[in-house]
Amino acid sequence: MNSLRQLVREKLADGRLPHDSIPRVWGGPGNGESCHACDEVIPQAAFIIDGISASGWGIQLHVQCFSIWDAGRAPDFRLRSDDEATRGDEARRVEGRWMSA
Ligand SMILES: [Zn+2]
Q1: How many distinct structural domains can be found in the chain?
Q2: Distance from C-alpha of 84 to C-alpha of 19, rounded to nearest angstrom
Q3: Which of 18, 20, 29, 72 has its CA 20 to 30 A from that of 10?
């Protein structure tokens, strides 16, 4: 897991993964695609997150890799305290994001 985080950080640093947000994502079973984060095949048994970034960059990731990328892409945002957001909003935001398919 640590090495995967490291890999995602490296890809963010050298531009192989986007830093901008993904306004909309889709989810579904994999179909043998390569994960853009870990480079491993996403089998049909696994769930894939597909999305297009704000700058038009299409990415496909394992669910696990997506969350690592999402947490790692914008450390500045993470430093902003969640205390400002109400807890209820937090849950709704997560639901909206994952249910957008
Ligand atoms: Zn992956």
Answers
A1: 1
A2: 23
A3: 29
Q: Which of 37-46, 54-63, 81-90 has the lowest mean pLDDT?
A: 81-90
| Residue appearing with tokens 């969640």 | 82
Distance 64 CA to ligand 1 centre (A): 7
Ligand 1 centroid vs 83 CA: distance in angstroms?
Answer: 31
| 18 CB-near residues (< 8 Å, 6+ apart) | 53, 55, 57, 59, 73
Phi, psi at 93, each rounded to 5°: -65, -45
Q: Which residues form the domain of 78?
A: 2-98
Contacts of residue 40, defined as CB under 8 A and 6 or more positions apart, other chains included, come to: 34, 62
In angstroms, the CA 98 to CA 54 distance is: 17
Percent with pLDDT over 70 in the chain: 71
Q: Are 26 and 60 in contact (CB under 8 A)?
A: no
> Ligand 1 is a single-atom ion; what residues have CB below 5 A from it?
35, 37-38, 62, 65
